[in-house]
Amino acid sequence: MKIIHKLKNYHPNKYICYLYFFIPIFIGFIVRMDKEADIFFLLRYGEQVVNHGFPVTDFLSMHQGFDFVMQQWLSSVIFYLSYHVLGYYGLLLMVNLVNLFILYMLYKFCMLLSDNNYKISIILTCITDLLLETNFIVPRPFIFDFLLLIIVLYIMEVYYQKKSTKILLWLPLISILQINLHSSTWFMLFLFMLPYVVSLLYETITNHKDKRIYKVLGIMILMFFVGFLNPYGIKNITYLFTSYGNEYINKLIIEMLPPLINNYGFITFVIMGGVLGTYIYYKKEVLSLRYGLLLLGVTILNLLHLRNFSLYVIGAIPPLALYLKNVLRKDYSKKANAAYKRYYKIVLGMLGIYILVIVICTNNKFTNPLDKGVDYLLEHNKKQEIVLYADYNNGSYCEFRGLKPYIDGRAEIFLKANNKKENILKEYYLLSNDHLDYKKFVDKYQFTHLILSKDESLYHHISNDKNYRRIYRGKDYEIYEKKK
C-alpha cells in the first residue's frame, strides 16, 4: 500500500512521463533475431514469393509433392525485404518499428479507456509491451497479430463509446491484412470483437432504439468475405482447422503446452492473479459486460497454451486503465521547463549511442550453432547429392542455407491433413520417443548425412551404428555420414 500511496503523490510533468516509453524501446533493441528459428524458413518464403511467385507445393523440405499453403506470405515478404536491403540490422529495425506502432496503439487504447489519464496509460502501456517483449516481440508473424488485434479493440471501443460508424470501415482492411500476414490467426479478429458484439446485442435487447449491433454485424460479414482476397482462397481461411488441435503438434511444440508450474506457467499464473486482484480491489461496481467477457475469453485462451499468454496480456491489462484512472490524478499542464527538455535530449542521445553500440558490436549477419557444421558439410559435398536428416529445431536453418532436410519448424506442413500425402509429424514423434525402428526409418529415406542433436534418441543409435561415421562435432550436435 505504501507503493500505491507514493504513486498517488507522484505528479511528474507530462513530458517526464513520456520518457518511460524509452524503457521498452531500449529493451526492444536487445532482441536477437537468430534466436528465433522460424525466421530462417520465413526468409526463404519471402525470397520465393518475390522471385518466383506463390508456391502450391512445398519447396523447402526433402519431401516431394506436398500440398502447400504459405499462410504467412505477406509477413515473410516484409521480413525478406528488410533482410535483403539491410541484412540483420534490417530485421532488427523492422521488428522495433512494429513495436513502436504497438506502443502507440496501446497508449491510444489506454487513453480512451482512462478518459485521457496519461499517467496510468503510460504505465499500463509500458507494462503490456514489456510483457510482450519477454518472448513475443521477435521476427515472427505474431508481431503483426498483436498490432492488428490492439487496433481492433481500439476501433470497437471508439464505436461503443462514441458511436462513430466511419471508424468501423477500417475493419475490412484489417481483415485483408490479417488473412495475408498470418491466416491461422485470422479468426482471432472475430473473437476479440465478440465481447463488444454481445454487449451491443444486450443493449439492443434492453433498448430497441439502439441499432449499433446491426452495423457491427454487417461489417463482420464484410470482413469475412474480404478474407477470400488472398492467394490461396478458401485454403487460407480453413488453414486453422486443418492445423489446430493436432495431438502431435501439442506434444512436440513447447509453446502449445498448457501453462504449468514447471514450464514457465508460474509467471502466467502470477500475472493472472495480479490482474484479477486489481479488478477486484479497484472496481466497486459490477464489471462492464464487454470487459468481463474479454477478460474471460483471453483467460480461457491463456490456460490452453503457453503461446496465448501474449493474447492475455493484450486483452486483460489495457482495460485496467478504466478502473485505475482515479488512482493517479490527471495533470494537464502543458508547460515544460528547460530541464524537462534537457531530459529528452539526454535520453535521445543515450538511445542513439545505445543503437550505435549494438550496430558496432553485432555482425550484420546471423550466427547459429550450425554455422560451421553446415559450412563443412557444403565444402565437402555437392548440395544436390545430400539427403539430409535434421530435426525439428535445426531443419529451418538448414533450409536457410539451401539444404532440404527431413523436417523443420513448420509443424503443420507435415500433417497429412495439409500436405495430402503423409503424416510426417507423427512419424517424427514416434521416432523421437523410440517407438519406431530407426533402421527402417533411415533405410526408408536413404539419408546420406544426419545432423543430430545430442539429446535426441536417434543420435544414440546412429553414433553406435557401424554403417555411419562422424564427420563433424559441434557443441550440442554432431554430423554423421553414411559409409559408402
Describe the structure.
- This protein is mostly helical and 484 residues long.
- It has 24 helices and 4 strands.
- A 4-stranded mixed beta sheet has the order 1-2-4-3.
- It starts with a helix and ends with a strand.
Summarize this structure briefly:
With 484 residues, this protein is mostly helical. The protein has helices at 2-8, 14-18, 22-28, 38-52, 73-113, 118-133, 142-162, 170-181, 187-206, 212-226, 234-237, 239-243, 247-252, 265-282, 289-304, 309-316, 320-324, 338-361, 371-380, 395-400, 416-419, 424-432, 438-445, 457-462, and strands spanning 388-390, 449-453, 468-473, 477-482.
Percentage beta strand: under 5%
Could you give the order of the helices and strands? HHHHHHHHHHHHHHHHHHHEHHHHEHEE
Helix content estimate: 55-70%
Unreliable sequence segments: none
Name the average pLDDT.
89
First CA to last CA: what distance? 73 Å
Strand order of the largest sheet: 1-2-4-3
